[in-house]
Write a structure and sequence with these properties.
With 135 residues, the protein is of the alpha+beta class. The chain has two domains: 67 residues, no CATH class; 47 residues. The longest helix is centred in the last third of the chain and has 24 residues. The model has no long low-confidence stretch (mean pLDDT 89).
Length: 135
């Protein structure tokens, strides 16, 4: 099961979560059948979809997956509910941790006002070093 589209933006992920699912096949070749707001049925796999949005997106310089494909990817666990791949979620969490550590260090060393205890800071720093090895 391969997802070549990467993460999707938050608005598309939100729309994907509202897609009316008729059926999902999570076998060797996963697919989904959805009902559009106009009552039309769309069939999607992780590679393509029969909806007009996907066909329009294919003509763009950087094509993207449609909400039906995103919904299937979410159902299969390829994307989380925010539309992020596991790797992108890790990178986002890592950047958030890095930012938090920098802010704590700045407050401690520049303003002499700790935001968190030394033990909490050491715990964050340890987590940061572990995550850094996964990059």
């Amino acid at each position: 099961m391969e997802w070549k589209w990467g993460s999707t933006d938050a608005p598309r992920a939100a729309r994907a979560g509202k897609v009316k699912v008729v059926s999902i096949n999570d076998g060797a070749k996963p697919s989904i059948e959805c009902e559009g707001s106009d009552g039309a049925r769309y069939y999607a796999t992780l590679e393509s979809c029969t909806c007009p949005d996907f066909n329009i997106n294919l003509k763009k310089a950087n094509p993207t997956a449609c909400k039906h494909m995103v919904r299937l990817a979410m159902s299969l666990g390829v994307l989380n509910q925010d539309g992020l791949t596991e790797r992108d979620k890790f990178l986002k969490d890592y950047q958030d941790l890095e930012s938090r550590l920098a802010k704590c260090a700045w407050y401690y060393y520049v303003l002499r006002t700790p935001l968190i205890s030394d033990a909490e800071y050491d715990g964050l720093k340890k987590q940061y070093m572990i995550w850094r090895t996964k990059l």
